[in-house]
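Appendix B, Record 12. Input sequence as logged:
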Amino acid sequence: MKVHFGLPSSPIGAVTLTVGSFDGVHLGHVDVIRRTVAAAAIDGAQPALMTFEPHPRCVLDPANCPPSVTTLQEKLALIEALGIEHAIVIRFDRALASRSPQEFVDLLTPVIEVRRWVVGFDFAFGRERRGNAEWLRANGHVVDVVPPFKLNGKELHSSDLRRLVTLGEMEEANRLLGREYSMAGPVEAGDKVGRRLGFPTANIGVEPNKLVPALGAYAGRAIAPEGTFIAALSVGYRPTFGGTTLRVEAFLLDFEGDLYQKRLELRFIRYLHADIKFPNTDELVEQLHRDVADTRRIVKL
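Logged structural output:
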């Protein structure tokens, strides 16, 4: 997949294009992208996707900027796996938001020949969201509108995912995603508290604005350069030790080695319990043993 940061620098030819934020690349997004790829094959065109960075709401309504279900890197990897050939990442700012629908389309014309638009039912673009599927059709464009994606009769939205992850309801969130919710980052140096307790953990750096699950312990997996491991995960401040820094960390079961500065992906499968302040380390260690036993029982490789 060719990734363009900004409009392509030279014409890329005929495409079937879908446009949106695609935060989370959840099952509803997957449906739109797969329809785009299928339509491109019929059109004799390349399947292309345009997305925006940052999320438009972070520019237009910064007080309500939503945390990202997927970072840009995660989003692009998921999109590529679905068969998109051109991903166009457009920086969203107020200048772009102020363009009329026609001005927006005119930006694309010199470098992108859009044979067909494949858009969601609520797709809108341009100043005051005046552009939509009806506007495109009235101006000579071929448009496929994808109906709302429903699970058990309920429409699926990225806001649903954010709410579920924030509440720690990972099993339901994973069902809407069609995969396990994940966070990834480089392993950073910690204070080695876990190692002293017999549970050496890997702490990952969290990317700015990445959605963080509810504080607490989770059963999950860790994807390391050495392979995939069952992992007891923790999101919290280490209240037993008076911690004030948010930590996202993993104890990898049946793993020996050094992960420092390596990239680690953590996948959240089930919420076990809230972040607990224990009166002493002995009780904390007892709970860690229970968490590891529960994780081993819940998670299968």
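The mean pLDDT is 94.
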